[in-house]
Specification:
Helices cover 33% and strands 25% of the residues. By secondary structure, the protein is an alpha/beta fold. The protein has a single domain, classed as Rossmann fold, CATH 3.40.50. The strands form two sheets. Strands 6-7-8-3-9-10 form a six-stranded mixed beta sheet, with helices on both faces. Strand 1 and strand 2 form a beta hairpin. Helix 6 runs parallel beside helix 7.
């Protein structure tokens, strides 16, 4: 009796972030401004992507739409398997809390809370108990295992940004969005934070999307995407800081 061998199942890489024909406009009539023009982008889980462009190019609008902080005028935004551009406001707020991590230039830590309390704040707001094993792993991964009881005022800027990164990771989000995460740090501390973001992508298979104006910061990413006049106008894979700077020159920033 012959047995039939099942055909192998090919599983494509999981998609963490997808934008389909996303347009964003503000105002109307003569005051109408188009900030994004039919943007398409697909990011695989575990990727680290930097977004760069001149001032007013649309990179911040892209970040806000991709992270669910703003709604596109047209098109769709998917995080994991959810089309967040179709969610109602309350559902979108809940989704962001549970599925999106944020890291900003300002650390946005609550001064009265300890490291551990700041890290677990998204879970507290959701009425969920932390997974102690995952919490211990995340706090250790960002180098804060011995500082869990400290408050922000007792920590350096770099340590506070590590707390913000751990807070962004604690819910195991579909993606972490970072907006100029090293802007308030000196170059050495900034490099350590960027190395940490890269390790979260490599070691934790966490998707990281970072907006930055710094070619050195961008060069830590797997891919640098360039934005001009509301559209993606090219990318570089694993570039050097000089290659990023040279590319930006052609976009008219310097």
């Amino acid at each position: 009796m012959q047995t039939r061998t099942a055909a192998p199942t090919l599983t494509p890489p999981a998609t963490a972030v997808r934008l389909d024909a996303v347009t964003k406009t503000y105002g109307s009539g003569a005051a109408r401004v188009t900030a994004l023009r039919g943007v398409d982008l697909t990011l695989a889980r575990g990727s680290f992507t930097a977004v760069m462009g001149p001032s007013g190019s649309g990179k911040s609008t892209f970040l806000h739409c991709a992270a669910g902080l703003d709604r596109p005028t047209s098109g769709s935004v998917w995080l994991g398997g959810t089309d967040i551009s179709r969610l109602k406001p309350k559902a979108l707020t809940t989704f962001r809390r549970d599925h999106v991590g944020f890291v900003f230039q300002a650390y946005n830590l609550l001064p009265a809370l300890t490291v551990e309390q700041n890290v677990t704040l998204p879970l507290l707001l959701a009425g969920r108990e932390p997974d102690r094993g995952w919490l211990d792993f995340v706090v250790g991964a960002v180098g804060l295992a011995d500082l869990r009881g400290r408050k922000p005022a007792e920590m350096s800027g770099g340590q506070q940004q590590r707390v913000a990164i751990a807070r962004a990771l604690v819910t195991r989000p579909d993606a972490v969005f970072a907006d100029e995460p090293t802007g308030a740090l000196d170059s050495r501390t900034g490099r350590q934070v960027l190395d940490l973001l890269r390790r979260t992508a490599v070691d934790l298979e966490q998707t990281v999307v970072m907006v930055t104006h710094d070619p050195v910061a961008a060069a830590h990413a797997d891919r640098v995407v360039f934005v001009a006049d509301g559209a993606f106008v090219g990318h570089l894979d694993r570039p050097t800081p000089q290659q990023v700077a040279d590319h930006m020159t052609h976009l008219g920033e310097w």
